[in-house]
């Protein structure tokens, strides 16, 4: 939740005249989170809330649900018939030429493109230019407080320790006849419980060809064995089980045996260089005060893999925003699925996780980056070699 003065300060900083929030039937969860509206609110009629850069907000609600926005500041207008709706919107918008909405041209940033096309048409029909609220949403939803930053580092300490211990546990069990992906996953879940960590889903333990599926997760029914000569990928993400905590999300890879096969080592070296190119891009741009968009970071990583001849096997974005949900609402490091033009802004965090996914195994190296004003850092350990398990 953001206060109205905070929202207005951000509008002024970006030179945006006004931000329009609107909804019915909870189609825009972003609006409810930013404004602090109750999620259980029954919304059968359209409501609108216009926050200007200067002056008081204006709310427009249906007569049947006239009290819906009463907890928010501002002047209230009421409509019933559709003609009243349009007339009141025209009055609300009169002082402004450009209005931000949860909209993205051509649906490029589809994570925030939640307003229906008809509503966009309606606002445009009243002579207004609709612009995207994507960077506004990122500032309101993806920036971390100092307490949240501390919670990220607390999660890092716990997860880095669990990651190291899990790799050792795989080795111990492999020497004693082997284990399964699911058994190791359950061992990790127990370790998370001891560390007061929570996650939004089961952790990834993937061996050989299963590691080529970025969202693979073993189950009690479907789980491969892990034995001598196997390649293993672990992807662990969680946050501390406390209010407003934020995630830490990493991936490491290892090989069960005495030496890493040359073909695995070659792929790791390419992925490592790709990862480091993205890290360097962020640190150089932020350190020199340059504006940086998510797509530029993806390009830095993707160029390395494409030059090595494996571009066809890098089939996902380089990284995602991280917040109270593991996939947050800030800039993603993406010039593949979308050209993410959102800004990389201070007090935000995101993953860097380039990968090469071949038919027999997939390899990625994932770190988290925290951006401050004038600097950026990798918040945890950085894998430099395939782990010999």
Tell me about this structure:
It contains nine helices and 19 strands. With 389 residues, the chain is α+β, with helices and mostly antiparallel strands. The chain folds into two domains: 4-141, Creatinase/prolidase N-terminal domain (Creatine Amidinohydrolase, Chain A, domain 1), CATH 3.40.350.10; 143-388, Creatinase/methionine aminopeptidase superfamily (Creatine Amidinohydrolase), CATH 3.90.230.10. The chain has a six-stranded mixed sheet. Strands 8, 9, 11, 12 and 19 form a five-stranded mixed sheet that branches. A four-stranded antiparallel sheet has the order 13-14-17-18, covered by helices on one side.
Instruction: List low-pLDDT spans.
Output: none
Query: What is the share of helical residues?
Result: 25-40%
Q: For the residues shown, what is the average pLDDT?
A: 97
Total separate domains: 2
Order of SSEs: HEHEEEHEHEHHEHEEEEEHHEEEEEEE
Biggest beta-sheet profile? 6 strands, mixed
Helix/strand/pairing class, anyone? alpha+beta
Count the strands?
Answer: 19
Distance between the termini: 45 Å
* Strand percent estimate: 15-25%
How many alpha or pi helices?
9
Shape: elongated
Spatial ordering of strands, largest sheet: 4-3-2-1-5-6
List keywords for this structure.
389 residues, alpha+beta, Creatine Amidinohydrolase, Chain A, domain 1, Creatine Amidinohydrolase, 9 helices
């Amino acid at each position: 939740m953001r206060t109205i003065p905070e929202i207005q300060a951000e509008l002024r900083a970006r030179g945006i005249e006004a931000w329009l929030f609107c909804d019915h039937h909870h189609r825009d969860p972003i609006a409810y989170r930013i404004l602090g509206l109750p999620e259980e609110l029954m919304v059968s009629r359209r409501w609108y809330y216009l926050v200007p850069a200067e002056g008081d907000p204006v709310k427009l609600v249906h007569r049947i649900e006239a009290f819906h926005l009463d907890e928010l500041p501002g002047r209230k207008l009421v409509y019933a018939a559709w003609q009243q709706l349009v007339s009141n919107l025209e009055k609300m918008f009169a002082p402004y030429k450009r209005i931000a909405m949860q909209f993205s041209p051509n649906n490029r940033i589809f994570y925030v493109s939640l307003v229906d096309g008809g509503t966009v048409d309606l606002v445009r029909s009243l002579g207004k230019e609709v612009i995207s609220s994507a960077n506004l949403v990122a500032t309101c939803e993806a920036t971390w407080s100092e307490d949240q930053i501390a919670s990220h580092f607390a999660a890092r300490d716990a997860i880095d320790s669990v990651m190291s211990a899990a790799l050792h546990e795989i080795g111990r069990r492999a020497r004693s006849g082997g284990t399964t992906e699911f058994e190791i996953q359950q061992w990790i879940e127990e370790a998370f419980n001891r560390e007061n960590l929570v996650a939004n889903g089961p952790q990834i333990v993937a061996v050989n060809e299963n590691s080529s599926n970025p969202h693979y997760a073993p189950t009690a029914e479907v789980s491969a064995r892990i034995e001598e000569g196997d390649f293993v990928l672990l992807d662990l993400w969680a946050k501390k089980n406390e209010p407003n905590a934020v995630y830490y999300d990493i991936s490491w890879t290892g090989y069960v045996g005495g030496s890493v096969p040359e073909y695995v080592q070659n792929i790791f070296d390419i992925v490592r260089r790709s990862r480091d190119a993205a890290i360097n891009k962020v640190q150089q741009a932020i350190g020199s005060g340059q504006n940086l968009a998510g797509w530029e970071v993806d390009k830095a990583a993707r160029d390395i893999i494409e030059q090595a001849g494996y571009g066809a096997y890098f089939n996902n974005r380089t990284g995602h925003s991280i917040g109270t949900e593991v996939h947050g609402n800030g800039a993603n490091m993406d010039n593949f699925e979308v050209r993410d033009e959102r800004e990389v802004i201070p007090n935000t965090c995101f993953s860097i996780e380039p990968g090469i996914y071949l038919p027999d195994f997939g390899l990625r190296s994932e770190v988290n980056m925290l951006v401050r004003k004038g600097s950026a850092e990798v918040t945890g350990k950085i894998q430099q070699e395939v782990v010999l398990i």
